[in-house]
Amino acid sequence: MAGEVSLYFGNVPTVILQARAGKLRALATTGLKRTPAAPDIPTVAESGVPGYEVTTVYGVAAPAKTSRAIVDRLHADIVRALNSPDLRERLQNLGADPVGNTPEQYTAFIRNEIVKWDKVIKAAGIKGE
Fold this sequence. Notes:
Elements: H1 12-20, H2 68-82, H3 85-93, H4 103-124
């Protein structure tokens, strides 16, 4: 941390270790609820912007024509890894919330995010360059 950035929006796993070490000051988290990894940090909604929610999601995607057997195998292996006590604890300690939902749930989530952010883009008049 060189002191050259006045404000930064980063996800919790990226910045939590620096915040815990006192190298930066976390002002708020962007989820709807406080993160168990840093319960003393309020949310943006609690800080005066009701309904504010922006989250970072990590997921695995495969080409649309990938066989169901391969998708099911990948899903099972990923969920098994996410549910291993050591990995789960490490991710949660960094402020991540391992989910491991179904491929259909993840697809629905992505579709909802597209609709959500499309509205934001249109309302803000953002144009591609």
